[in-house]
Amino acid sequence: MARKQGSHSDITGPKVRQAASKLIARHGYAAVSMRQIAAEVGVQAGALYNYTPDKQGLLLDLIGSHMDDLAQALAQVDLTGPPLTALEAFIRFHIRFNVPRAEAVFLSYMELRNLEPENFAQIEARRRDYEQRLGAILEAGMAAGDFIASDPRVTTMAIIGMLTAIPQWYREGGRLPLSEIEDIYWGLVRRSVVAA
Fold first, then answer.
1. What angle do CA 56, 32, 41 make, to 5 degrees?
2. Other Cβ atoms within 10 Å of 76 Cβ, number
3. Considering only the top CATH level, what class is 9-52?
4. Domains of the chain by residue range
5. In angstroms, how far is the first alpha carbon of the chain from the final one?
6. Residue 129: HSE in the Cβ half-sphere, 13 Å Cα cutoff
7. What pLDDT is stored for residue 13 in this prediction?
8. Of 98, 77, 76, 81, whose CA–CA distance to 162 is shortest?
9. Is the domain covering 57-193 a CATH 3.40.190.10 domain?
10. What confidence tens digit (pLDDT) does each residue in 32-43 have?
11. What is the pTM of this model?
């Protein structure tokens, strides 16, 4: 397959990542070959190695980029208020950030298992940092007597799991707008942790 005219690193690199993300989210990491990714982009398979050392490096890059973007965006969110206010800000942030990134969210959770141990440990540490932001809010609420969560770690994982499922089923233009979904989920979380 001939290289597409106008195939430059600043154009082709993002196309490689986009194609890999789409194909891996659709078919799974193990089922997608570098040849398939190259065909999707319209370059020879060997050309992919100008953009990634191998398929494992590509998966690490895709998940790592999502984690970078997530951390940078969360850093802009004010989580310093009272625990209930901080919890609402976190919940709404998580939904708004992740819903438009369904493929990246899927890769970050479902394809994590395909990372080699060193790469897995690197991403898992970054995920843990993110999750600990929510855990700290829950612990602060428990210490203040505002929250009733019996175990902040388990509650953190339950909330993250519930929120992370939204991008897999939510479709823009569906029965409810995202703002209403956000309100419903905030209500579910609030009722699960707030002392009556």
1. 90
2. 7
3. mainly alpha
4. 9-52, 57-193
5. 65
6. 13
7. 83
8. 98
9. no
10. 999 999 999 888
11. 0.87
